[in-house]
Structure prediction request, 171 residues.
Amino acid sequence: LANDKKVIFGDAGENIVGDGTNLAITSSGYINLDSVANNINFKSNGTGYLSLINSAGSAWIRNSGQDKDILFIGNDGGSSITALTLDMSDLGKAIFNGSINVGDGHVVGWGDNSYRIEGKDDGANARLGFVTGSSERMRITSAGNVGIGTTSPENLLHVCSTGNAQVEITR
Prediction:
């Protein structure tokens, strides 16, 4: 070890080392942080800024700073990129810096999922459905046919209604 570093705990191979400015934990295996109180808090100058919380088996990440964002940052070929920002000043709005891929058969929904977009790729019957009020209102098929009021559009645009249907086209 360098002369300005002190081994706080351990030996030269597995240790916690401090130099008055930084604290380093060195291990050839896992580093486990365990808390009986279910919280692991990170502080700077005595002020908490991040907590990892176990709440009834659910893992929480909590930013303690008011209106401070939570960012997920990675490295792409040497460049730092922000993949996801959770904007706490805008009710936790998620800002993605790239594509969002949803697994086949899953939905992107709002509220209780009675308003959602459903995608299904099962070969010849692949489709994208738009649901409002828990009923599919529009569908786009893999052939490019658009159905409004029908789940099996037979033409480029297929509009179906059981009531007095009106279609308005204005110029």
Q: What stands out?
A: The radius of gyration is 27 Å. DSSP finds no helices and 15 strands in the chain.
